[in-house]
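Notes, Module 5: Reading structure tokens.

Key idea: the token line is not a picture. It is a compressed description, and you learn to read it the same way you learned to read a sequence, by spotting repeated patterns. We will look at two proteins. The first is printed below with its tokens.
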Amino acid sequence: MRVQDKQVEQVKAMKYLGVMMSDDGSMDEEVEHRIGTATRMIGAMSTKVLQKSELRRKTKMKVYNACIVPALLYGCESWTLQARHMSRLQAVEMKYLRRVAGVTWMDRVRNEEVHERKARAGSSYRHDIYGGGRVDGWRS
């Protein structure tokens, strides 16, 4: 491609407004980057937020809604998600929610129960990371 008699370089991927765009339209790299960012944030908050028994679950959920969700979903309006992306995003969400609820996989608590505990923790709404909007019904 030429612009004003200059050859424009064609690249496989580029970052535009903080979102990785690939030449084939795949969102793999961007989704993995967002998941990595959110996971690092969860790890960094572990001792300061998640392991603090002085903080109520409601406070921990506010931190989730204010910090983790925006980092995880930045630019998601332009994503073309596939089933594997959805599964990975759900896993990150459940990782945080299980830590807030104080349950592990060894406790054999189903994800639905963890979501119910989230609702009881006072989260006023739930980000629907699977559909791109908010889902009401988490009022306490």
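Here is the second protein, with the sequence above and the tokens below, as before.
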Amino acid sequence: MIINSLLTLLRQQNRFHVGELKQQLKLSIDQWELLLSSLNSLNIAYTVTGSKIVFNHQHQFLEPKIINSNLQLSNKNTISEFVYIPVISSTSDYLKNGKRHTAICIAEMQLNGRGRRGAEWISPFATNIYLSIKLPIIRHENIGIFALGVGVSIKTALNRLKVNNILLKWPNDIYLENKKLGGIIIDLETDKELWWVVIGIGLNVNMEHDSYQNIDQPWSSLKESGFILDRNIIIAYLIDEVMNGVQQFEKYHDEAILRNWNEHDFLKDKTIKIVIDNREEIGLACGIGKGGALLLQQNNRIMPYTSGHIELLQ
């Protein structure tokens, strides 16, 4: 992408001669106009005076070197590829289409970020965290517990940063102050020799409600909740805790995962509706059971559900 070539240059300087910049990026007149339009959509301010262009953006870009320097050595040595692409279609899709090795992909913005059930994930530029982690997995048949373990790991990472009151909403949401702070998407694939998991994590860091009033559910960000944190440090902590958590999962620490989840279960004791295909089930959420199933009390019976879309009724 041309925009990524420009963003790479912006990390070094913010003043350019228009003709030299066009030549450096090998742009036609039409491509130049398209690039300026892209900058407007990313909220990167610029002024053109004569033959000069000055970029006045206030964004703090991610710094892979800072992230790497804050990783635990054992995890750093395990990572074969660490990719930073400023504007990307999807960090998870990039890793799914890449080599079969342990890898990290981060971005400033996703053009086709997705949540659960194919929902769009809002991805403003240089504002939040868009992170994907690719790892080999042995216990792939226990992916329900695995996904809950990732949620617990994210909670642990945020707790290390003094962000408390984190709750976990089955099956893949992170909540702060009863509002959605982030989400997880898990993709499994195999090369016939090994199974691989790609963990996609989206976390609201610096979003503000004034700019995003059209989101159709209550949401929060770390900034709006009073936490001013460096995205680089958050990412380092997330990578460490997720990789450490995967190791614990592979050692069959399922009971610890379930206990930790149930202690911070957003849905527990709430009346909910779970939609499965065209069927709806209503009941009282009673925690998470064996295999990571949601437990629902219905007519004095406890029923387990392993999939479905959740709606709160109270």
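Summary for the second protein:
- The chain is about 30% helix and 30% strand.
- The chain has a mean pLDDT of 92.
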